[in-house]
Amino acid sequence: MAAESSAAAFASLRGPARPLLIGTALGFVALFLVLPLGVIFAEAFSLGLRAYAAALADPDVRAALLLTIFIALVAVPLNTFFGVAASWCLARFRFRGGALIVTLIELPFSVSPVVAGLLLVLLFGRFGLLGAFLEAHGVRVIFAVPGMVLATIFVTFPFVARELISLAQAQGNEEEEAAVTLGASFLQTFLQVSLPKLRWGLLYGVLLCNARAIGEFGAVSVVSGEVPGQTNTLPLEVHALYSGYEMQAAFAAATLLAGIAIVTLVLKAALESRHRDELRATRRARTG
Amino acid sequence: MGTRIEIAGLHKAFGAQAVLAGIDLTVQPGELMALLGPSGSGKTTLLRMIAGLERPDRGAVRFDDEDALARPPRERGVGFVFQHYALFRHMTVARNIGFGLAVRKVPRARIAEKVAALMKRVQLEFLAERYPAQLSGGQRQRVALARALAIEPRVLLLDEPFGALDAVVRRDLRRWLRRLHREISVTTVFVTHDQEEAFELADRVVVMNAGRICQSGTPMQLYRAPADQFVYRFLGEANALPCRIENGFVIAEPGLVLGRAEVRTGSGTVYVRPHQLAVRPDAHGAWRIAEVTASGPMSRIALARGALAAEAVLPTERVVALGLGPDMAVEVEITGGMVMADAAAAPVPLVPVSRLARPHLADQEAEQRADQRADQG
Predict the structure, then answer these.
(1) Are strands B239-246 and B212-217 parallel, antiparallel or unpaired?
(2) What are the residue boundaries of the structural domains of chain A, listed by start?
(3) What is the reported pTM?
């Protein structure tokens, strides 16, 4: 409603106001989104295609790329699972402490990633709370991959959960009740009703979670130890190269991150256009 | 044939709040029953208990002598139509209707066949591939009904089935549902707060208030012989006129004899429905018109006689024909009503003056005049 009426107000604008508004918006997008992206690619290819390929062929960059993908592959599914479980519980049952859980889930948003990293060091580090126990069993968490996975999970935890909780609560419980009276089992209800009705929220949540998992710098840098070829993710590698004045190599590695972001956006757009009918229908249902 | 539903001693409390306080009810096979009551009367909770979506604290629910409470909702064979339809928003109309069959692993070809037949029955063949959000309210309602019927339920339950629809759609759907029920005669219970809907649709109406059943009967029985004040007032608008009862005569105001009723002498209230007041212009009439409000085919007329106030409803055409307007002196004839004596439990019918044998009335009036003379003397 609000969107429609403001759209109508916009359409009725006279004189220079309209081109001025459109121009400002486009200028903003160009300055803060298109230009930086262009600079990344321009800088990456500044020494030619061969140099670009050589930078990407560097074993450290390769290792960083693989580690980044590995961490995302662990963290995103886990957080998706937690998010679905949390939203399902909170929408299905009213219980004491429900509101507290919602607040706690959002905690990682308000904690600085660096603090999150330090928190893990205090817990799992050599002199940390669980450090002696872990060392006695020969498990290394801090300055190793497990710590980086944990840091990423912590930082990206709220993305899926937050998206789904509000959606599930708004959608209510009636469809599940209908499914049950129609003879669906618990599993059938969950898989065929609860999950699908959340699927667009789930998709956005997973995409955001994934983007953040791949791009995370602060928390991961605290617990990584930054050993090139071993505990460097792509963002850490970019930073390391940049700090070593290897500009072209840094930007070449950065194109990988930008590339992942672009592919993600294209995938999302493709999915949306394929399910346009359904999406339009469910969106209208949500607002109406 | 249909299933008989037997409900005995059903109790339910949410915290300290009793929602159902001892419900005993039998729904006959193939019956179309309405649960009628204001919000908070427990009618929806009762319906949800029959479906198994809510558990009673005490009591029994049986389908044909079989303990329904022992079965989870998915095995009860109940078709439930929710107030807001609860259609699966991510499924097309056809998949919504076929859902109950798909989860039962019915072969695809058989599902398609049955869905097609049901869509024809609810007149929605052309909407098979639409999503619920692309349908109108009335169409959604019919999809919800088709989905519930697809599993060939033993019992069909509808929660405020027409609550969210506009007046015209509501009336059409009501008639359509009545016809559908006649064709398939599945035992059906629906919840409503609208007495007109309950009366038009149901074979039997159960009036509920505060977690109890006040009365159950055919619409005619309820209307003719309401069990108590609540039922009477819930079944339609009514004027409440304070009165005295003397030797079986009901007197609203000194000198205004309304009729006779079989109640003992004392004070009480006369309830008269607006349509039970006949108004005609009379320059010597004791009533005065305070206001006339025309709303479509019927008009409301606010009447006053001294401290007595009442509202009549007349066809607008008649109001125009009689030339009724504010401040006009009129005569008002009461054609029916109920008398609730303060000392009695249930209201009794009022036999209005107009239907009393003349000599009788003359006697009474003569008596009264004699009394008044005696008082003055």
Answers:
(1) unpaired
(2) 18-47, 48-287
(3) 0.78
The closest CB to that of A180, out of B74, B131, B150, belongs to: B74
CA separation for the pair B38, B41 (Å, rounded): 6
ipTM of the complex: 0.80
Residues of A in contact with B90 (CB under 8 A): 196-197, 199, 278, 282
Q: Which of B44, B48, B74, B97 to mutate to test the interface with A (most CBs of A within 10 A)?
A: B74
Q: Find the residue in A nearest to B103 (Cα).
A: A184
How close, in Å, is residue B147 to chain A by CA atoms?
A: 8
Give contacts of B53 with chain A, Cβ < 8 Å: 177, 180-181
The tens-digit pLDDT sequence of chain A (288 residues) is: 455 566 667 777 777 888 899 999 999 999 998 999 999 999 999 888 999 999 899 999 999 999 999 999 999 999 999 999 988 888 878 778 888 888 888 899 888 999 999 999 998 888 888 888 888 888 888 888 999 999 999 999 999 998 898 888 888 889 999 999 999 999 999 999 999 888 888 988 999 899 999 999 999 999 988 888 888 999 999 999 999 898 899 999 999 999 988 888 898 888 888 777 666 665 554 433
Q: Do A180 and B90 touch (CB under 8 A)?
A: no
- Three-class SS of residue B60? strand
Q: Which of B65, B63, B91, B60 is nearest to B79 (CA)?
A: B63
Q: Residue A185: exposed, middle, or buried by beta-carbon count in 10 A (0-12, 13-18, 19+)?
A: middle
CATH for A48-287 is 1.10.3720.10
The DSSP call for residue A32 is I
* Helix, strand, coil tally for chain B in percent (to 5): 35, 35, 30
Give the pairing type, strands B32-36 and B204-209.
parallel
- Closest to B131 (Cβ–Cβ): which among A181, A184, A277? A277
Residues in A lying within 8 Å of B, measured between beta carbons: 174-175, 177-185, 188, 192-193, 196-197, 199, 277-278, 281-282, 284-285, 288
